[in-house]
Amino acid sequence: MEASIYIDVLFFWEWMMDLFLLWAAGRISGFHAKGWRLFVGAFLSAFCHCLFLLLFFPNNGSILFSFGLIILGLSIAYLPKSLKNFVRLFFTALFASFLLGGGLNVLFMSTQAQKILGNGLILKQRFFPWQYLVWGISVSYILLKMGGKWIEAHIRRRRDFCTVYIRKNGKWAEGRVLIDTGNGLKREGRGVIVMEIGTVLPLFSVEEGEKIMCGARECLVPMHYTSLGNPEGALWGFIADECRICFGEKVLGYKELYIGISFDLFTGAYEGLMPPCLLEEDEL
To answer: Looking at residue 259, what is its pLDDT?
Structure first.
């Protein structure tokens, strides 16, 4: 007996599943993406998968092909500017995928709870019925909500870190910053974010970047302060056209915020330091 696959139904559920994975990856890892980017990233990922099934059925693709679909969706949805941030998003997406697929597969095979929605049609043992997708999204969302405190403490560490997006000259840079309670730097009454040179260097032109790396400071703005280990008595930085701070579910925006530059790399798994006072201000 020939089996019929309704590609439009498969595409719709694949699209919804990929959309949930992209959304969960961003929420867990602390990155913010516009809704239309999430929809487009999930759409193209689902489209490529369904196209592969049409051309090479019944081959469902290798694990590398699955990784490629995740990479495609993340790249379109979040546009990560650094390899470190991309790796963080990728492994978080795999974690969400495990919740959506691996753990639920064991649950359904042992309990058959998915039959509440009907028996469905299984073409082959390795093909999941459509009920798995409905149950997968629902149960994964519940697990994420129930495990929110654990995720916050062990994955996101929302009380310690957040993600900062900086725009200058029409270019964007992003970095993970530590909320430094001991950072009391302020300029014109507002807190100062200090970022590694490697994170903000792409915001400058090639000529400006070469001059900065060679020691020139003409294109930078000094901020005078005194501290131990600061022989120059100044912090060099620039005025950002726009700065967005993503902290949990909040997105704070600032115009013309001063960004200091650290010419030494930070030892932790972050690219910058930020005073907590910026999380209490919202100029939008």
So the answer is: 92
Q: For residue 242, what pLDDT is reported?
A: 92
Q: Which of 156, 188, 204 marks a domain boundary?
A: 156
Q: Which residue has the higher pLDDT, 110 or 166?
A: 166
Q: State pLDDT tens for residues 26-75.
A: 877 777 778 888 899 889 888 888 888 777 766 666 777 878 888 888 88
Alpha-carbon span 79 to 33, nearest angstrom:
9
Q: How far apart are CA 105 and CA 119, in angstroms?
A: 15
**Is position 1 within any domain?**
no
- Determine if the pTM surpasses 0.85: no
The continuous run of DSSP H or E covering 93 comes out as: helix 83-97
**Gap between the Cα atoms of 61 and 16, Å rounded:** 20
End-to-end CA distance of the chain: 62
The rounded Cα 38 to chain-centroid distance in angstroms is 11
Residue 63 three-state SS: helix
188 and 52 share one domain: no
Query: Kind of pairing, strands 190-191 and 186-187?
Result: antiparallel
Whether residues 122 and 210 share a domain: the answer is no
Contact between 131 and 120 (Cβ < 8 Å): yes
Q: Is the dihedral of CA 138, 144, 147, 148 positive or negative?
A: negative
The percent of residues above 70 in pLDDT, for the chain, comes to 70
What is the per-residue DSSP string for 10-66?
A: HHHHHHHHHHHHHHHHHHHHT----HHHHHHHHHHHHHHHHHHHHHHTT----HHHH
Q: What is the rounded distance in angstroms from the CA atom of residue 265 to the CA atom of residue 98?
A: 34
DSSP 3-state of 160: coil
Q: Which domain holds residue 256?
A: 161-280
What does the DSSP 8-state code read for residue 100?
Answer: I
